[in-house]
Structures are given as structure tokens and as C-alpha cells.
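Summarise this fold before class:
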Amino acid sequence: MSDYVLVVVTAPDEDVAAGIAKTVVEERLAGCVNIIKGVRSIYSWEGRIEDEPEVVMLIKTRQNLYKSLERRIIDLHPYSVPEVICIELKDGSDSYFKWLKEVTATIIG
């Protein structure tokens, strides 16, 4: 298992995403969050097909912080069922991963 993950989260707008992003970075649950505007999401919800604008957050963190990050996102998110998907990072820049380790929280135990 990799020590680092990418967490994908959608949000209704840039302000909501920025609020979540600032909180998880300040709390050292993530090192960086990219917010991508202009996403169109088509999905099934409560028996209907929805077609809505959203933004996507790409959150970089360490694997051992994922569950804490997931709980925090769910607490902060306005959706009743937010999309929170964790993708294991197999490889990447050693210097980037070193930085990511330095700027995220250390979990003991």
C-alpha cells in the first residue's frame, strides 16, 4: 500500500469547496487541495436524473490520514451523501511526497 493518496470530492460551488479546502489544510489533514471549476455532473438521485454544475476538489494527503479527512469532509459538506473517493498513489515525485509528509499531521498509534 502506498503512503500517499488522492481524494476526489465534488461540491456545489467554489465557495463551499474553498471552505472545506482551507479547513482540511489548516488542520493538516491535507497538504494541498486543487479546486477545478466548470464541472457538469449528471447523476441519479432519489429516482431522478440530475444535471448540475459542480466543482471538483483534488486533495493530496497521506494514507494514514484518510479516515480522519473523510470524516471532516462529511462534517463540513452540505450534501447528505458527498462524493469522497480515495485513490492510492503508486508513484510520484520524491520531493513532492517529502513535502506532503512534512505539511500534514503526524498520527501516533
